[in-house]
Amino acid sequence: MVLGHYAVGLALKRVEPEMSLGMLLLGVNLVDILLGILMLAGIEHARFVPAMAGVYPFDFYDYPYSHSMVGGIVLSLLGFLLYQYWPVIRKSGSRLRPALIFGAAIFSHFLCDIISHRPDLPLFGNGSPRIGLGLFGSMAGSVALEGTLLVLGLYWCQRAVSPSSSIGRPGFIFFITGLVIVYFWTLTDAPLRALHYPASSEMRMAVLLVFGNLLFVGAGILLDASCAKEGPAGSIQ
Ligand SMILES: [Zn+2]
User: How far is the CA of 71 from the centre of ligand 1 (A)?
Assistant: First the structure.
């Protein structure tokens, strides 16, 4: 899942408006960013299978740390603890609720991936049972579900955004448009081919997972910052 993860991050902004949209987007995409890093480091592996039907024709035969159920739980716990105790995050009042939401955002990735992935998500490790409902096998089904989730996430998030913010609305439209364009672009594996990135499809995907997601996390941070300056109480902050 791609847009679906972002939809969860956007919806959580409504649940906890005090949290940075960038942090929420980082949370929901942390598992994929970790997968990209571990693939680039040669620790986790996927295999490009051109004949595979649907979207993202990759056989994820070795990603026990980033995409197992236990891996998701451990990463969520780490995220919760880091958010709760990291000295740089200065927030007034208790951090417990936002820390719990950050941890939940991280684990939501595994739950969303169950819907979209082929049965390749291990419960514990490579030798354990693998789950996945396989929506990636259908291009139309994947695009329909991801699009629907994004619209729902946007709807929820917009309720946390002040209509009077002059930067918030155009910024949001720009952000979502960019996200949708990049999503459809990745369905064709074109972005890094266009840049003549000299690597296998597996490495192209790993680079996209890391830098594509970080790009939109950064955009979420900027969007938050601009809205906080511009809008009154109740706007994105
Ligand atoms: Zn994933």
Answer: 12
| Assigned token pair, 104 | 């939940």
Residues 202, 48: contact at Cβ < 8 Å? yes
Taking the CA of residue 204 as centre, how many other CA atoms within 13 Å lie in the half-sphere pointing to its CB?
22
Q: If you measure from the C-alpha of residue 172 to the centroid of ligand 1, how many angstroms do you get, rounded to a whole number?
A: 24
Residue 220 CA to residue 175 CA, distance in Å, equals 8
The Cβ of residue 142 has, within 10 Å, a number of other Cβ atoms equal to 22
Q: How far is the CA of 110 from the centre of ligand 1 (A)?
A: 7
Count of other CB atoms within 10 angstroms of residue 213: 22
Question: Quick one: angle between helices 21-40 and 213-230, nearest 10?
Answer: 160
- Spacing, Cα 112 to ligand 1 middle (Å): 8
User: Going by C-beta distance under 8 Å and a sequence separation of 6 or more, which residues neighbour residue 81?
Assistant: 99
Could you list the pLDDT tens digit for every one of the 237 residues in the chain? 899 999 999 999 989 888 889 999 999 999 999 999 999 999 999 988 888 888 888 899 999 999 999 999 999 999 999 999 988 766 667 889 999 999 999 999 999 999 999 999 999 989 999 999 999 999 999 999 999 999 999 888 877 765 445 556 778 888 899 999 989 888 876 655 566 655 688 888 899 899 999 999 999 988 877 665 444 444 443
Residue 119 is given by DSSP the state S
CA of 198 to the centre of ligand 1 (A): 24
How far does the centroid of ligand 1 lie from the alpha carbon of residue 150, in Å? 16
Q: How far is the CA of 32 from the centre of ligand 1 (A)?
A: 5
